[in-house]
Please model this.
Amino acid sequence: MQTASVTAAYKAAVQSSCQMVITAQAISAKGVNGPMIPITDGQVIFDFTTATRRTCQLAISDPTRTLVPDLTNDTLAPYGQRIAVWMGPVNMPVLMGTFWIDEVDADDAGTTLDIELKGYDRSGKISREALTATYTIASGANIGQAIQNLLTFVDPGITYKFSPCAYTTPQVILDVNQDPWAASVQLAQAGGMDLFFDRQDVCVMRPLPDPSTLPISWTYSDVTGAVDGNMIEELTKVVVASNTIYNDVIVTGETTGTSDVYTGRAQDLNPSSPTYVNGPFGDIPVFYKSTILTSNAQAQAIADSKLTFFSGRAQQLTLQGPPNPAQDEEDVVQVVRGALNINSKYTIDKIEFDLAPAGVNTTKASATGQQTLTLRRVIEGS
Model:
């Protein structure tokens, strides 16, 4: 949750089905703020399950025909230009992210000119900057520092916010044409860490969260007047097919050039869980191998984090309702729905924000805009 944005006035506004507004500003390839961009519709997506976490698709009105990109320095050209997007109640905008422009399509209907823009956070840009020469990470390098060195080599303009990580790397050789962002994510996962770019375009590395230990950031409820809550318009309860759920994670690390083998294992030993390894569900293992582990502790950290994810997938929800732009992926929320006998905690895997233009109600299902949350259950108890 973007706590800096969640004032008492903000809470009151989003709980009263207020009109949401959307604003955007172009940023040049040199980082200079440009003109405000008139957004007429679109979507911003936060997705915890993908390597590039934040993407956008925006509809732009251009009656003066000044925004259609042609040359490399044009406002919306996809050559390093960016667009910053805000959404929120009137006079209380929340930064949704800074997006590198990836694709721009213009449709000239004669009397109107409509532009559709697609963008992604900085990790998408880094992924495209494939290595043009072999890159070597020395044995014994701290994982966090190794990631910073690699990413700075590719993009010197990155700002970092890294939590300490005690684990080190073996020698890692990255080949020509390898994706540096994918390699960085793999290194972070080897240390039990989460790696992503946040809304402020800061590269964040932090321990993968355990949802059972996190506070509830917001409540989504069909009870009028719920504290810090938004009403639910539509909710789908999904019990995921058993072939997508595992309750026994076995991790093996075999470092290239040595005979060392590292192992970790995490099982669902919670009798209250529907995927309890000794319960009716049975023992359903999944195997994960890595060549960049240097200890059993690393292997165990990976096993623990993957088990947390798989266990929560035993029950998923898809929830639609009025938007809360301050909500983040990985937040823990309370969902209350009497008709489905639901009153539980869930982790947000994905948020799809439908955008509305400044001063105009959206045409989405809600008269105030809409968000769609994909959630997985937080399994508590022991």
The chain has a mean pLDDT of 86. The chain is about 15% helix and 40% strand. Residues 144 and 165 are 6 Å apart (CA to CA). The two ends are 28 Å apart (CA to CA).
